[in-house]
């Protein structure tokens, strides 16, 4: 290493020296280098790519007219359900329901049910949707869907809710299809019409796990 001659400043301060050789590069231990590189890669990977693959692949299934009378009255009725299993990352799943071929400007009440046919068993009211002038409607629900159940704390009986049914929310709206039908209780105000569409096409199984 070459050292320049010391230079005395005019204020009689302490001698100073300067080094002409460049300082050597600092070498990190291999383990520290690997950890640093891994940390950098982690910041570059989008969060969505670290989620479970199942979160990006919803379960999709169709509903069918809940009775022969509805099938005859609404021959073009169709409904598709998609369930996004997001409970592990968001605390709730997401259910998307899209329907068409229904009565225009009509409200329907959506339930998770024990059975897709009468007497339906245990049920859970999860949402409403109203069709437009063309008989199309949809609803999105954030709730526990794939593991939904009803529990009777008196009997200790747990009942899984693995089916989906939606009803005419107003008992007067089903009269064109089922004249004189008695009101049911499948709406928030306790008065609904008959079941419009359901997952009975999955019997003896169910569309939800």
Keywords:
209 residues; alpha+beta; eight-stranded antiparallel beta sheet; two-stranded antiparallel sheet; 4 helices
Mind explaining what this structure looks like?
The chain has 209 residues and is an alpha+beta fold. The chain contains four helices and ten strands, in the order H-H-E-H-E-H-E-E-E-E-E-E-E-E. An eight-stranded antiparallel β-sheet has the order 5-4-9-10-1-2-3-6. Strands 7-8 form a two-stranded antiparallel ribbon. It is globular and about 40 Å long. Mean pLDDT is 83; it is low at 1-23 and 32-55.
Secondary-structure topology with pairs:
Elements: H1 30-44, H2 47-50, E1 59-65, H3 68-73, E2 78-84, H4 87-90, E3 93-100, E4 107-113, E5 123-130, E6 137-143, E7 149-152, E8 157-160, E9 163-168, E10 195-198
Antiparallel strand pairs: 1-2, 1-10, 2-3, 3-6, 4-5, 4-9, 7-8, 9-10
Report the biggest beta sheet as strand number plus sense, adding barrel if it closes: 8 strands, antiparallel
Seen as an oligomer or otherwise, the chain set is single chain
What is the strand tally? 10
User: Which spans have pLDDT < 50 for at least 5 consecutive residues?
Assistant: 1-23, 32-55
Distance between the termini: 76 Å
Separate helix tally: 4
Structural class by helix and strand composition: alpha+beta
Query: Biggest sheet: strands side by side, in what order?
Result: 5-4-9-10-1-2-3-6
């Amino acid at each position: 290493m070459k050292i320049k001659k010391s230079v005395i400043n005019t204020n009689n301060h302490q001698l100073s020296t300067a080094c002409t050789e460049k300082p050597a590069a600092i070498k990190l231990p291999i383990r520290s280098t690997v950890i640093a590189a891994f940390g950098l890669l982690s910041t570059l990977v989008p969060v969505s790519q670290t989620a479970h693959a199942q979160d990006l692949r919803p379960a999709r299934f169709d509903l069918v007219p809940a009775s022969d009378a509805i099938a005859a009255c609404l021959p073009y009725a169709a409904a598709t359900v998609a369930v996004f299993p997001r409970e592990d990352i968001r605390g709730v799943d997401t259910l998307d329901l899209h329907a068409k071929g229904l009565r225009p400007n009509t409200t329907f009440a959506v339930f998770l049910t024990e059975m897709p046919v009468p007497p339906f068993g245990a049920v859970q009211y999860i949402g409403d949707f109203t069709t437009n002038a063309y008989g199309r409607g949809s609803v999105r629900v954030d709730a526990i869907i794939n593991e939904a159940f009803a529990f009777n704390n008196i009997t200790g009986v747990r009942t899984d809710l693995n089916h989906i049914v939606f009803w005419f929310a107003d008992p007067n709206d089903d009269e064109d299809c089922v004249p004189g039908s008695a009101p049911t209780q499948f709406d928030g105000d306790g008065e609904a019409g008959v079941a419009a569409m359901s997952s009975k096409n999955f019997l003896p199984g169910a569309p939800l796990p």
